[in-house]
Amino acid sequence: MRKLVIGILIIISALVLSGAAFQRHALACELLPILNYQQVTPQVFVSADMSAQQTETIIGTIDSAIERIAAGESFESVFNR
């Protein structure tokens, strides 16, 4: 009976660890507020030790990328400026 309980615990532990390994990105996203990251937009988090200027640069870069995608600019046109 004791071997059965140990076997079941090992199987459950293996399933939990494999699930955490496969879903590590989702787990990391859930831990961002706990790890002292600041949310600057609904889907963007930055480290708390980043300066305000660096944060604004990141937000500006993301906004311009969204505008380029919405405008339908091709990859080549961006690099041939």
Short recap of the structure:
This protein has 81 residues and is mainly alpha-helical. It contains 4 helices and 2 strands.
Write structural notes for this entry.
The chain is mainly alpha-helical and 81 residues long. It folds into two domains: 1-28; 32-81, no CATH class. The chain has four helices and two strands; from the N terminus they run ααββαα. The protein has helices at 2-22, 24-31, 52-71, 75-79, and strands at residues 37-41, 44-47. A hairpin with a 2-residue loop joins strand 1 (37-41) and strand 2 (44-47). The chain starts with a helix and ends with a helix. The model has no long low-confidence stretch (mean pLDDT 84).
Distance between the termini: 72 Å
Q: Helical amount among residues, as a percent range?
A: 55-70%
Along the chain, the helix and strand elements come as HHEEHH
Secondary-structure content class: mainly alpha
Helical segment count: 4
Q: Report the mean per-residue pLDDT as an integer.
A: 84
Largest sheet: 2 strands, antiparallel
Number of strands: 2
Low-confidence stretches: none
Shape: elongated
Tell me the count of domains. 2
Quote the beta fraction.
5-15%
Strand order of the largest sheet: 1-2
| Rg from alpha-carbon coordinates | 22 Å
Observed structural traits:
elongated; 2 strands
Secondary structure elements and pairings:
Elements: H1 2-22, H2 24-31, E1 37-41, E2 44-47, H3 52-71, H4 75-79
Antiparallel strand pairs: 1-2
